[in-house]
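Worked example

This section walks through a single chain of length 1021. The input is the sequence exactly as stored; nothing has been trimmed or padded.
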Amino acid sequence: MSSSVVQPADSPSGRMTPPAQMAGLGQSGDTSGMRARLTSSRFVGRVGELAELELALREATTGSPAVVLLGGESGVGKTRLVTELQRRLAQADEPALVLRGESVEQRDGELPYAPLLSALRPVVRERHPAFERLSSVSRADLATLLPALAGSGPNAERDGTTGQIRLFEALLELLDLFSESQPVLLVLEDMHWADRSTRAFASFAASSLRQERLVMLLTYRTDELHRRHPLLALLAELERLERTQRIELAPFDRLELAEALADILGDTPSPQLVERLFERGEGNPLYTEELLAAGLDGRGAAPETLRQAFMLRIERLAEDAQRVTRVVAVGRRLDDRTIAEVSGLDAPRLQAALRDAVSEQVLVAGEDDRFEFRHALLREALYDDLLPGERSELHLALARVLESGCEEEDKRELERTTAVASHYEAAGEQRAALKATARAARAALEVQAFGEAGDLAERALELWPRVSDPEEAAELDHVGLLSLAAGANAEDGHHGRAEALRREALEELDPERDARRYSSILGQLARTQWALNRGEQAVETAERALALLPSDDRGLERAKLLSWLARNRFLRGRFREAVTEAEEALSIAVAGGHTTAEAESYNTLGMAMIALGDVDEGVARMQRTIDIALETDDLDTATYGYSNMADMLSLAGRTAEALRVAKEGLAVMPQRLRADRDWIALTLSEMAFSIGDWDIARKHLEDPPPSWLLGRQLMFRRLREADQALGEGDEDAAAEALDAIESLVAVSPEPQWIGLFGALKAELLRRRRDLAGAQAAVASALDRIELCTDDVMRIARVTAVGMVVEADRAQRARDLAEESEERDATARAQIHMDRLRAVGEAGGPVERAWLATGDAELTRAKGQSDQRKWLAAASEWETLERPYWVAIARWRAAEALVDSGDRASAAEAARAALETARRLGSEWLTAQLTGLASRARLELEHERDGNGASSAAEDGDPFGLTPRERQVLALLAEGATNRQIGTALYMAEKTASVHVSRILSKLGVSTRTQAAAVAHRQNLG
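Given that input, the structure is written out below as tokens.
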């Protein structure tokens, strides 16, 4: 298949009239009475930029996709560069498929996906083979945007909305299929005009690309980007991606301008002519061409602006041609039938007028048989020149013609609908504008263009009070329009605005007379409040909604409310309440055949049952969720079904089974569903980390997080990164991940995020010896969890980390002879221990493993670390198949055995822990174990004497201490405090503290006592 292209309207497009026979245009530079061809037939300059684009395509051919941002001022030649690239690609050994579409200047919300629609229509018309290989679900999703795909394969129909992310995933699947047969260049031009849905797709695609043979090229005008332009945020976001490169076209220099002029004029221009045109046009190719088109050579009364140059050329057209161009200036891209109806010209006059406008290179004909201006600036100049009344009449005429087309079976229904709304509003026809705008909002909602749907609905709300009998015009009442606007805003992430609109809708209803509708909107409001992290208020709102329905009501609305409430009870740790409400919701859903509510109810019921200890029954319920989802092709529900089951199995201690479920879920999920696959991949990474397969855990964290991650998915991703980084010992990476979501966790009501964040934050600070900060992180997490949950699973880990922190505090206090601090730490450890005993009794095997760990930590806090308790904790974790925690417990056991003098047993425990730490790739634990072996003279890998000690003498300084650090260590070994060290060595107490921290790190120890022991044994200091 040849490369497909929609020709843009930027700078010279390649459609050129034959060169005029030029005379007297050599060194004399006299152009009087002569009209030059407008554009150079040769490609001038831009060698480096073209090479960069060709290189990006070559690399994409090998599976390295790229995003290229091509910027430049208006008329500098962006489209000419893209056209030349396209010409070369068509002649390559492996021609690329070029999908090229342009944005159109519009108000926000006028036409969603404009450049994507323009780019894809040619391949839809030609029935590219990739369409036949699309999955049925993707075909149905894409059919909302490209109606020609509807019914083109089995099971192509799909009920309900799919969500914008799902539509984007379908588009990526299509591009991936295209790229299997040939590399793809997707060009989205004039992104400074792009609608918000197109910008959202560009963001999603750029961050989701993996190994597709694809280059996405975005062009834009740099002179359009004012400080608050919406494209600026997207450009900044894309530039952070490694695969993105930015190219900015500069104007021609004098040599390049001379080369272009020589080709246009057919002779070498004089230096004086080049200089005059360079001064007037400042090297801008388009301005220079318009100066020539105006019959000028840079002398005399040249147009002061590019717009004036454009108008001079338009005024040379015949009257009918000018009439046609005025219609196209208002309609932007029109076919000849529409132009004829609006202009009133009969066929012969119309064809003559169009031929005149095209030959003068004012208009160009696109491959879709629609006419547009050669350059958008030319259209803008003519549109601005229209008289207000003339402009309004043309908008009104276009609205009526296009509206009649909307009544027909039309493949461009979305485009026509949004255009009709815009034209009626511009014409001042408010009643017709309300009708069309409401219709356009619904059309935008159908294609998941939620931002545009929200804008259009709010525009309709503005028109509402200006129209008599607005309900008849809009074909819905005011509450319905408010709900439409609220729903679109909520889907687009503007939950605050959605809440305001839903409250306004409630004010217009009577809760007694309109109980069901009032209840429905309250239910939607509850979901919005939950999205705003106001969990308690959301539950109260949902309960109000439920109370408005009759107690014997068995309808879908009640089932949905109960199902939602049950899920949120579970998330807040109210497991028994969740069971009660999920069972009632399930009963209603099954009786009414509401499969979505049925699947959600089974899922919540299963999770709550597992949390309450009935694991097998709970797993059976959750499996039913997965079965229903797969039977109905509801892959979103299947995603959380697999992920939730794996998570609950892991929390119940069935680690291997949890990993198997996560792997099954990832295998079932189609490649195109990036968001769903990313969620399951994170679950799989978490399960693999637990069971000790850190290679798999790392593999699913290799790609950078996509920029579209928000809310819960962003928290999940960053917490998984932090957990992995802490396991490996990369404290900086862990800190970065936790910092990125701290504000989100701070307002989240869910213990699953609060608990893990608190545990990881405390462990990070503990390792950095900020024990006060670690203690505060534990206290904050426990306070927030215990206020809202009975979730012992989350409480256990946070409390166990709190035990580690208090044991460290007690050890440090003993080193510094701070008796009151030691007593406080020991007392707090005992409080944590009491909490762990409570959760151990209420929980399952995982909670019991944390209880065993806490029991051992309590002995460490009291200064008599008990190796038997540590080995018992290791045994508990070994039963659960959690090797990381086994190794930590064995490390602590080895420390306790060293303190008790049993070095042979210490070496055995340390050796087993070290083997695990190295296999996992836990550098921090490896360092702790080798440090322990060094200071206790344990031989872990070579010949040992009968006591497990090294037979080789150890002397010298193997730790890389500086002379200053050796001085500090000598004083530290004598028991000096930081203040005493500072006084003795003439340094600040804070500086002494820094030196001590570095020494502890180099020696691989955690306390000053251990450091002193190393110093004495190895004669350091």
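What to look for: Strands lie at 66-72, 97-102, 184-189, 214-221, 244-248, 334-335, 363-365, 370-373.
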